[in-house]
Amino acid sequence: MPKRKQDSDDDGNESSSSDVVCVASRKSLVDVSFEFFDPNPNVDYHAIKRLLTQLFQRDAEQLHMHELTELILSQPTVGTTIKTDGIQSDPYALFTVLNMHLHHQNTSMKAIANYLLSVTEAHDPPFHATLKALFSQSEAHVGLVLCERLVNMPVQVVPPMYNMLADEVKWANADGEPYQFTHLLFVSRAYHLSEEEESQLANRASTRRKPEANSSKKQRKHRPELEQSEMARPADGVYPFHPEDDILAKAALHSLTYPYVAPLPPLVQETRSRETFGLDVRGRVMLIPGGGEMIRELGGRMAALFGTG
């Protein structure tokens, strides 16, 4: 049975800019029913592994996605997937938390801990020092939070997943399970746009709007895209893939966006070296103090900003 069912017409008024652009540019709207399930070891392995590979991008291979997927599926009562066609279908989104101290001998968890120590040492020494201190003791436990979804999933599905995970952590702790976290380590993605690339995107958006200049209705429909194109450029040109990351970053003790360790494949290097637009995707890691109730609080902030469908 699903945990909870949420209906979305993909036309949420409080959606983030990235989601609204995707929806507003369509000629027609489609109603989609999202169902929330526990991770299912009998069905979800391949889809979850793909989502994790999407999350860690080209660094995924060195982080042992098979072992990480198996670990997630070994705790099916903590974590949520979202599907649209029943329990036997593939999940389109995943949200879960893993105890890094409890599973420190797991091949993937060990690789991820060393990986995060390495990238923070290279790009943010104070962050590295904090992580090293947390990983070298056993009293305070760190929860590794993994949240990933397909690109066309609306942000409104995220707050309910936070509330569900907060409840599951609370219930697990009540049963004596090891989910008492002092810190939460969120892994995510971001992308960088040069000023030239931003100009190209703005020109494309302007070109798409011109044929509709005489239609007041269509002008209103494309307004969110216009607002996005006129947003102030971040000083570093880095944008989150997931709009809720801005809320996480504000709550974080440390936040780092970093270039992936593994080199780009030769064909991608060649593409980006020419005058061809391609996203410069980067990793992001954020450390937030707290445990299950902090997850609930963050979900509440997201619900207030984005709504829940």
Automatic annotation (TrEMBL):
Residue ranges, annotated region (Disordered): 198-235
Keywords tagged on the record: Nucleus, Protein transport, Transport
Keyword RNA-binding found: no
Annotated Pfam families: BCCIP
One record GO biological process: protein transport
Main location class: nucleus
Highest taxon in the source lineage: Eukaryota
Subcellular localization(s) per the UniProt record: Nucleus
GO CC, alphabetical: nucleus
Function: Involved in nuclear export, actin cytoskeleton organization and vesicular transport.
Family: Belongs to the BCP1 family.
Protein name: Protein BCP1
Annotated organism of origin: Gymnopilus dilepis
Lineage summary: Eukaryota, Fungi, Dikarya, Basidiomycota, Agaricomycotina
